[in-house]
Amino acid sequence: MSEQGKPSRVQRIWRWLRRPLALGIPIGIFVLVAAGASFQGMMVLSNHNEFCFSCHLTMDTIVQEYQASAHYGDGETIPATCADCHVPHTFIDKMKVKIVATKDIYHMMVGTVTMENFEELRPAMAESVWETFKKNDSQSCRHCHQGDNFDLAKQPQRARLNHERIAERGETCVDCHQGLTHKRIVSR
Question: Is 152 within 8 Å of 163 (Cβ atoms)?
C-alpha cells in the first residue's frame, strides 16, 4: 500500500489478474483433461476393427480374408485385431503410423483407391507393410507371440527348428508367414 492507503500499481495489476486466474485455472485444467480424454478416446476407437472395417469393408476384400483367418479368432481363441498387427504398440511409433494413415482416408475420399483398382495396387501396398515388418523385426507379431503363446516345445519339429534358426538366418516372422492373415501376394 502507498502512503495514502491506496494500492500500488503492482497491487492493482495483481488484483486485476487474480480474478481471471481464479476462474482460468480450473477452466484450463478442465479443458486439458477433456482434451486428453478425447485424444485417448480417439486412440482407442481408431484401434477397433469396426473403425478399420468402416472403410476397408467397402473398398476391398482384405476384411473377408482377415475374418477367414486364424487371427480373427473362433470364439475360443483371442483374436488379433487389425491394430494389433498394423499399429505399433509404443506411443511415438503409434502416432507416426496414425498420422501417415490419414493419407488412406484422403485416397478413399478422392477415389484414388477403389474396388476396381485395389488388386492392381495391392502388391505395392503389401510390399510396404512387409518392409515395415522387416525393419522392426516383426515387433507386432512378437508382441503377442511370446512366452506361452510361442512355446517352441509345443511346435512341430520342422517349425521349432525353423524358429530356433530365424535370427542366424537374418529373417523375421513375415519372411515365412506372408499370407497368414491376408491372401499371399505375389510381388512383381
Answer: yes
